[in-house]
Automatic annotation (TrEMBL):
Name of the protein this chain belongs to: Protein DWD HYPERSENSITIVE TO UV-B 1 isoform X2
Biological classification of the source: Eukaryota, Viridiplantae, Streptophyta, Embryophyta, Tracheophyta
Residues annotated as domain U2A'/phosphoprotein 32 family A C-terminal: 364-382
BP-aspect Gene Ontology terms: cellular response to UV-B
UniProt keyword Cell division, yes or no: no
One Pfam assignment: DHU1_N
Organism in which the protein naturally occurs: Coffea arabica (Arabian coffee)
Length: 674
């Protein structure tokens, strides 16, 4: 039987199947099949669209029989309103059409969670998957999705973190949309996405005129129009000189002086545009009108309590419009003018586009530049194309505000290579300078190899180990009562000891390496909460006076304010005075910055993996004996949940820790070796 005849017989096959299953034909199914027949007759792609919300349980078996040997080009299975179909029957239908499956569209929580979980764990051969408005506490795509190239998880509001191996079963994924989610961490997100070699497009927020992935179509038109506007000035003067106009859009204000002001509408305010004295026309009114249209609705990219449209990049948008020198041809031809648009930090179009439904990651300072610099194959970000000029600017912004690895290391290395270099006395092979200079520079610092090992381990542990020490409380022998830590301090000379005071006035000393109780001092009868504690120094050295000379600002860290009057932030040195760790009572994030330059090294998200809830920083300390180790006094989201001290090891990956957790509860002391 020919392909055309086979497709034409779809309707009759369905009717015969209905008779076998003693079910009445569904007119919606007949319509789907008839549409596919018409597509084949017109030499179009033959696609059967199956709408689950138009079916009943009695319809599933006849439809499944049709797809067991269907000869169409593609099958799309969609469900856009809640349906209560039998789980096994739905899975049988999907498996029957799997070989021809192209699109799975289950949005608005239209199918039950158990059905969706079975699909994600079983895997499919579909090319496009739309799961908007579904609940994902974790990215659990355990099955194989080897043909999937486009994935939409927009408005999956429970999705907050992308794990290290979440895309391992999607090797051909090219486009992913995560608008309106809770994804917030630049470092873990870019690390997870970097494992997708085919990835060319990401969305964490969308252009106001774009519902799907792809470069904004209006953007190309606007760029063409701007190019045409370069030749709009018809009146020239031989005394014309290169002039500049600067438009600053922050809280909407202008600082340019001129005699005749013009205004551009920005939201509910006006931007005053002044130009220097330019003979005849300075900037064509059509260009001003175009800027008025493009700039309308742009808001600050800083933190906000609502999810209104935001613009890409820095909150202070500077557009330099250079009116180039006008020259008249000697041959008497019409004079021409060149209007140069030079954008300081990214393309003009990307700054002017109105973006909606941002995930929290979009509010991070320099979000766009960070993602472009971290993902070199990225072609479109938030419906806005990534150009060469954007990549160059992203590299400059990244090098100014972020650290790729600790101690200014620019390339990832393995620990084994570093140990080999230490034994042989050679240095890193990534440097472009001569061998003699490399070796001499390494010998200047006795900490070179120690820091290199730290950088290597740190770079391979984007998801660090979190070790809660709550099990220590069970050794007190006082029933199920748990300790409620209020403040803690590492021991100044014994690397294994930590002391903490509780909200009930107790003082506890623990061995945090072994996970055992060292000393317990009960609260006095009249005691209140332990607000602070310190270790006594029984071997004092000279007392020396340290002066804060004049209070001048040393370093400004690029950390956005939460805007809450109840928030308090604590910051401490780590690794001696190399880095600063900072935590906030309103955020579940630990920020690590270079103490010398202020550049961000990494943010660490604190989350209780058992409850799936965030933990907020009440206090924190760095381990004085181990590089990139710290402890955090954390409070959980639920008021009834306990407070607890959590050890954080930035040099070990949490994924490796899962494999070792069965053999030991606590990790051995970190040693540098000889």
């Amino acid at each position: 039987m020919s392909l055309d005849n086979n497709v034409s017989s779809l309707e009759s096959r369905y009717l015969d199947s209905c008779k076998r299953h003693q079910a009445l034909p569904n007119t919606a199914v007949v319509s789907w099949l008839h549409k596919a027949v018409i597509q084949r007759i017109n030499h179009q792609k033959c696609t059967i669209e199956v709408f689950l919300d138009q079916l009943e349980d009695c319809d599933l078996s006849p439809v499944t029989d049709v797809f067991l040997d269907v000869q169409c080009d593609a099958v799309d299975i969609l469900c856009r309103s809640p349906c209560v179909l039998n789980q096994e029957s739905i899975l049988s239908l999907i498996n029957a059409a799997n070989s021809k499956l192209e699109v799975i569209d289950f949005q608005d929580a239209s199918v039950r969670k158990d059905i969706l979980c079975d699909i994600l764990h079983g895997g499919l051969k579909c090319h496009v998957m739309n799961l908007r408005f579904n609940e994902f506490h974790a990215f659990n795509f355990a099955g194989g999705f080897m043909l999937l190239h486009t994935l939409s998880l927009d408005f999956c509001s429970s999705l907050s973190t992308l794990e290290n191996d979440c895309f391992v079963n999607m090797p051909n994924l090219m486009r992913i949309s995560l608008c309106g989610t809770r994804v917030a961490n630049l470092w873990t997100t870019s690390a997870a996405l970097s494992r997708l070699n085919s990835l060319v497009e990401i969305r964490f927020q969308n252009c106001a005129c774009c519902k799907n992935t792809g470069s904004c179509p209006t953007l190309s038109r606007e760029r063409r129009d701007l190019a045409c506007d370069r030749n709009v000035a018809e009146h020239t003067s031989e005394h014309s000189k290169c002039q500049q106009t600067t438009i600053s859009v922050g809280n909407v204000e202008s600082s340019i002086q001129d005699e005749s002001p013009k205004f551009v509408s920005v939201g509910d305010s006006l931007v005053n545009i002044h130009t220097h004295s330019i003979s005849h026309n300075s900037i064509d009114d059509r260009l001003i009108g175009k800027m008025s249209y493009n700039l309308h609705g742009i808001s600050s990219s800083g933190r906000s309590s609502n999810a209104h449209p935001v613009s890409v990049g820095l909150s202070m948008l500077q557009i330099e419009v250079s009116h180039a020198k006008l020259e008249t041809e000697e041959d008497g031809e019409s004079p021409t003018s060149v209007l140069d648009l030079d954008v300081k930090d990214s393309s003009i179009a990307s700054k002017m586009k109105v973006l909606e439904n941002p995930s929290p990651i979009c509010f991070e300072n320099h979000y766009r530049e960070y993602m472009i610099a971290s993902l070199p194959h990225l072609q479109v970000l938030d419906n806005i194309p990534v150009r060469l000029v954007d990549r160059d600017m992203a590299k400059m912004v990244f090098s100014k505000y972020f650290e790729y690895l600790p101690y200014k290391r620019q390339h990832g290395e393995s620990v084994s290579n570093i140990l080999y270099m230490r034994e042989t006395g050679t240095s890193c092979g990534y440097h472009e300078r001569s061998t003699i200079k490399k070796q001499s520079s390494c010998q200047k610092s006795k900490f070179f190899y120690t820091r290199s090992i730290c950088a290597a381990k740190f770079g391979s542990s984007v998801w660090p180990v979190h070790l809660p020490m709550s099990q220590i409380c069970s050794t007190l022998g006082e029933g199920s009562r748990s300790l409620r830590p209020r403040q803690f301090e590492y021991h100044p000379s014994d690397a294994s000891l930590m002391g903490f005071g509780t909200l009930d006035g107790e003082v506890v000393v623990i061995n945090h390496d072994k996970g055992s109780l060292f000393k317990y001092i009960p609260a006095l009868e009249t005691s209140n909460s332990a607000m602070a504690l310190c270790w006594l120094n029984q071997h004092p050295a000279k007392v020396r006076q340290l002066l804060a000379v004049d209070g001048r600002l040393h370093t400004r860290f690029e950390i956005s304010s939460t805007g809450s009057s109840h928030n308090f932030t604590r910051s401490y040195y780590m690794n001696g005075r190399d880095y600063i760790i900072s935590g906030s009572s309103d955020e579940s994030i630990l920020r690590i910055c270079c103490a010398q330059t202020g550049r961000r090294l990494r943010d660490v998200h604190l989350q209780d993996r058992t409850l799936g809830s965030s933990m907020y920083v009440q206090s924190l300390r760095s381990d004085p004996f181990r590089h990139f180790h710290m402890a955090v006094l954390a409070a959980y989201v639920r008021p009834s949940s306990r407070w607890g001290i959590v050890k954080v090891n930035l040099l070990a990956s949490s994924h490796h820790a899962k494999q070792d957790s069965e053999s030991q509860d606590f990790y051995p002391r970190f040693g540098w070796g000889g």
